[in-house]
Write a structure and sequence with these properties.
Layout (H helix, E strand, L loop, with lengths): L1 E6 L4 H22 L1 H10 L4 H10 L3 E4 H9 L17 H10 L5 E7 L17 E9 L3 E8 L4 H11 L6 H8 L5 E6 L1 H9 L20
Parallel strand pairs: 2-3
Antiparallel strand pairs: 1-6, 3-4, 4-5, 5-6
Length: 220
């Protein structure tokens, strides 16, 4: 997992911009620094992947809200194993459909339901359908690649939510971080194996794990 934290940011757009920049810069660097390795995969494993990636690098990523995502899924002609409903997490089959629906380009899904995400994500204070300032980046054939959010820096909001969850005692140390000083901030993580899987066109994530696991390989 590759992780990043952004201090002094109050905008989900800032996090999304860094996500997109990281993805495009990393991919361009891999192409320029490791051309023979990439060409090997694009020749024998995924012949069409190079063209798709080059096109993706030229275009802006698409952004939709969680509400819009659920409506798109409900109107889909495809039958899903997991029925899409507001308040439920998006499954991999949903994520892949959303990417396909948006033109096979990376898609940001923003503003997830309040009760669906961890306590530290910032409350949007947006009425009956309460949401948090969270974002997932979905990519073709993989689904979720990155996940992040603005962090809740307001102490009363954190105290209220932890009390409701019965976690105040366990997370008193976390409350102290806010009580004795904090700034608006956010962060995200990117799945490294999923990233390699996508840019190389590998079907099985187990084939891109840097430290392969197989029987008798982890002796204690």
């Amino acid at each position: 997992m590759v992780e990043a934290e952004l201090s002094f940011t109050e905008s989900l757009q800032d996090i999304m911009q860094v996500m997109e920049h990281l993805f495009k810069t990393a991919t361009s660097t891999v192409f320029s620094k490791c051309p023979r390795d990439v060409e090997l995969f694009h020749k024998y494993v995924a012949p069409a992947q190079k063209g798709r990636l080059e096109q993706m690098l030229k275009n802006k990523f698409v952004t939709i809200s969680y509400n819009e995502a659920v409506e798109i899924l409900k109107q889909a002609s495809q039958t899903f194993t997991f029925k899409p409903e507001w308040g439920c997490d998006l499954q991999t089959e949903h994520e892949k459909y959303l990417v396909k629906h948006c033109g096979e380009v990376p898609v940001f899904v923003i503003n997830y339901p309040y009760d669906l995400k961890p306590f530290y994500m910032r409350d949007n204070e947006d009425g009956p359908q309460r949401t948090v300032a969270a974002v997932d980046l979905l990519v073709p054939e993989i689904g979720e690649l990155c996940g992040g959010s603005l962090r809740e820096e307001r102490l009363p909001f954190l105290e209220s939510r932890l009390q409701r969850l019965g976690l105040t005692d366990s997370y008193q140390w976390y409350l102290d971080l806010r009580k004795f000083g904090s700034v608006p901030h956010g962060g995200f993580g990117m799945g490294f194996e999923r990233y390699l899987q996508y840019i190389l066109g590998v079907d099985n994530i187990k084939d891109v794990i840097p430290f392969p696991r197989f029987p008798h390989s982890c002796l204690l």
